[in-house]
Design brief:
The chain is built from 21 helices and six strands. The strands form three sheets. Strands 1-3 form a two-stranded antiparallel sheet. It is globular and about 75 Å long. InterPro entries: SusD_RagB_dom (IPR012944), TPR-like_helical_dom_sf (IPR011990).
């Protein structure tokens, strides 16, 4: 099947990137015209706007200092951030929630499509493929919200000004998940097998279903909500369906970093779904500047993340005789998982010169820099170095085949049904590409898979959600460390005054001067914006945020 990209109608996508009001103002006087909804092209045209609205903030986001999937890891223990946000510091409040998605515009516009399409004279199979697109988008939007709030109102129709749902309270998580599952199942049933460019296909629907089901199943298991087995089985089955499609494969002999430096992911067998950025169509982002620009690179990797990359013999650094220590970054990266050097720069690699610059250098920074010394190089493309601000256009992989393999392995491990054959066809494919010895099934398989997921998907925006579903928010309260401070790697090291220009711990690792916190009683969810509670007195504030 031809890979799907997301070049939507150019004018719609461009407007979505430039004008927030576009997302709230569909031409409803035209859409509701009696002559509309009468043929498949009408449904396709309307759905283009739904795609644009949902995917506007996906991929690499909308420019500036927002790198979308790249900077989303700044909420997590993967990233050492120079100036962390309130959520990362655990100081967000009901009045300043840090993250919010209590916007029902897209749901409203999807419901409008569904109501009109249901009554359309178009032949059932034809119209159902477009209904499937809309329902998959609704499922995605709903689950994004459910992860934040834990319960939601179910809005399944276009609301009139006197509709009782305007003042509805939240339905339970079980009821909301039944609603989402209904949309996912319909999408999987009716989505076309081979889609035209720019649209969902059955395989993509199954991939998104696998992602949602894994998150829900593990969240329920570790938060003791019950019924996790149902969702984990659905996750394994959906991932298995993508695998069985035969459309994708891990290119074990290809370079890890090259996948993320790709200007055109169309036809790449390691990518299930991606957002297409295009210079000719003026569809841009700002990732190249966020990685390499002095003012943009305000984050780097953490020592905790670096330590999770195995040695080539498949052993952790604390157990492997191949580990050379971390006196220098060259030693630290030697004999390690190739994904380490494919994600972070060393001196004289990628865009870095002889030394690594720190943002806090008293001499000033004229080259790119990071606060931790672990300079992120994932998504770096040399040809994009010359691009002006907000003019980068490498493609963003939204769903990689590697993620599907990880979902399959994790779901099977959580169910207690994983076999060595399962490990070989999933985790060990990724390890082969990374130059790491095979994983053998053992008692720590779940932890092994979690480590594999962390290093494979680092700086793709998954880590915060992973910690939330595993109920490991306490990891966000730990001190944040960077590189060992050493003259071999750090530029202008003689000019730093320890304790003034830089903070080091007792072992000479760079340490953030921020105090991190995570409140187990409430920080797994976010507060509903207080103005929404005023508008609808039947809403209940998220537990812990009252």
């Amino acid at each position: 099947m031809k890979k799907i990209n997301i070049i939507l109608l150019v004018s719609l996508w461009f407007l979505a990137g430039c004008n927030d009001e576009f997302l709230d103002t569909f031409p409803k006087t035209q859409i509701n015209d009696e002559n509309f909804w009468s043929n498949p092209s009408d449904l396709a045209t309307y759905n283009n706007q739904l795609y644009a609205a949902y995917f506007n903030s996906e991929g690499f986001g909308r420019g500036g200092f927002n790198g979308g999937m790249l900077t989303a890891d700044n909420l997590s223990d993967n990233a050492y951030v120079q100036i962390p946000g309130d959520v990362r510091l655990g100081i967000h409040t009901s009045n300043n929630p840090g993250r919010s998605d209590w916007n029902w515009t897209l749901v409203r516009d999807i419901n409008q499509m569904l109501e009109n399409a249901e009554g359309s004279p178009i032949e059932e199979a034809q119209k159902n493929q477009y209904i499937a697109e809309a329902r998959l988008l609704r499922a995605l939007d709903y689950y994004d919200k459910l992860k934040l709030y834990g319960s939601l109102p179910i809005i399944d129709r276009v609301l009139t000004e006197d509709d009782e749902l305007l003042y509805a309270s939240q339905s339970s998580r079980d009821e909301v998940m039944a609603f989402i599952m209904s949309d996912l199942d319909f999408a999987e049933q009716w989505m076309v097998t081979s889609a035209v460019p720019n649209r969902f296909s059955k395989t993509i629907a199954q991939a998104y279903k696998a992602r949602i089901m894994l998150h829900e199943g593990t969240f329920r298991k570790y938060h003791a909500l019950g019924n996790e087995t149902t969702y984990l089985e659905e996750a394994a089955q959906a991932a298995q369906a993508v695998i069985n499609s035969g459309e994708f494969m891990i290119e074990v002999n290809s370079d890890y970093n090259a996948l993320f430096a790709n200007i055109n992911l169309n036809g790449n067998k390691e990518v299930v779904f991606f957002r297409d950025y295009d210079e000719a169509l003026q569809i841009f982002h700002n990732v190249s500047n966020i990685i390499t620009h002095v003012d943009g690179a305000e984050f780097g990797g953490t020592k905790d993340l670096i330590n999770d990359y195995l040695c080539t013999d498949g052993l952790p650094i604390g157990e492997s005789p191949l580990y050379k220590g971390d006196a220098t970054i060259s030693d630290e990266f030697s004999n390690r998982d190739k994904r380490l050097a494919g994600t972070f720069a060393q001196p004289n690699t990628y865009f870095v010169g002889d030394k690594l610059f720190l943002n806090t250098s008293p001499q000033g920074v004229v080259n790119t820099a990071s606060p931790s010394g672990y300079q992120v190089a994932k998504f770096y493309n040399e040809s994009q170095d010359v691009q002006a601000w907000d003019r980068a256009f490498i493609d963003a992989p939204l769903i990689r085949y590697a993620e599907i393999l990880l979902i399959y392995a994790e779901a099977k491990a959580e169910l207690g049904t994983i076999t060595q054959s399962d490990v070989d066809m999933s985790i060990n494919q990724l390890r082969t590409k990374a130059g790491v010895a095979d994983l053998m099934l053992n008692a720590t398989i779940i932890e092994d898979i979690r480590r594999e997921r962390r290093v494979e998907l680092a700086f793709e925006g998954f880590r915060y959600d992973d910690l939330m579903r595993w109920k490991q928010g306490s990891k966000l309260a730990q001190p944040v460390l960077g590189l060992k401070f050493n003259e071999n790697d750090i530029a202008d090291i003689e000019s730093f005054e320890v304790g003034v220009d830089i903070l080091l711990n007792e072992d000479d690792y760079i340490q953030s001067n921020n105090t991190y916190a995570f409140d187990e009683s409430k920080n797994y969810y976010f507060p509903i914006p207080v103005n929404e509670l005023s508008l609808n007195p039947n809403l209940n504030q998220t537990p812990g945020w009252e």
